[in-house]
């Protein structure tokens, strides 16, 4: 049992290292990830400044993190498509556009959540 637990802890540690390496690599090369991170820092500041419920805070913060996750997935799609071929191909363009659309829809969801939360503050 202890050896299994040690192995799982080691595996979890490696997963954390690999995740951090992925984030750091994307941070170094992707301006949009840095922009979304700044937007999240600003959003988090407002979340804790405004008189919001814990559920509202959780929703806004979680959607902000989700935007970063989808942006990282979009970056992965773009990197893989470019690695496979730099040639212009409709399917490659579609894959990249779908990744971009996923980021846009996630950001839209966060914007809608902010709008509803702010509406509740001023209307109520």
List keywords for this structure.
single chain; 124 residues
Spell out the blueprint of helices and strands.
Blueprint: H1 2-29, H2 31-49, H3 54-84, H4 90-123
Helix pairs in contact: 2-3, 3-4
Short account of what is shown:
This protein is mostly helical and 124 residues long. The chain is 90% helix and 0% strand.
In which range does the helix fraction lie?
A: over 70%
- CATH topology, what is it called? Helix Hairpins
Number of domains: 1
Tell me the name of the CATH class.
Mainly Alpha
What is the level-2 CATH architecture name? Answer: Orthogonal Bundle
Q: What string, H for helix and E for strand, traces the elements in order?
A: HHHH
Q: Beta-strand level of the residues, as a percent range?
A: under 5%
Determine the structural class based on helices, strands and strand pairing.
mainly alpha
Q: What is the count of β-strands?
A: 0
Give structural notes.
Helices cover 90% and strands 0% of the residues. Helix 2 packs antiparallel against helix 3 and helix 3 packs antiparallel against helix 4. The protein is mainly alpha-helical. It contains 4 helices and no strands. The protein has helices at residues 2-29, 31-49, 54-84, 90-123.
């Amino acid at each position: 049992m202890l050896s299994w637990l040690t192995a799982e802890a080691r595996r979890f540690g490696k997963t954390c290292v690999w995740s951090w390496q992925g984030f750091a690599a994307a941070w170094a090369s992707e301006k949009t990830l840095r922009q979304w991170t700044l937007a999240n820092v600003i959003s988090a500041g407002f979340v804790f400044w405004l008189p919001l419920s814990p559920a509202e805070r959780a929703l806004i913060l979680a959607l902000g993190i989700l935007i970063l996750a989808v942006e990282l997935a979009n970056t992965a799609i773009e990197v893989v498509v470019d690695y496979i071929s730099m040639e212009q191909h409709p399917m490659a363009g579609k894959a990249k556009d779908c990744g971009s659309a996923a980021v846009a829809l996630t950001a839209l969801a966060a914007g809608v959540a902010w709008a509803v939360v702010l509406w509740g503050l001023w209307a109520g």
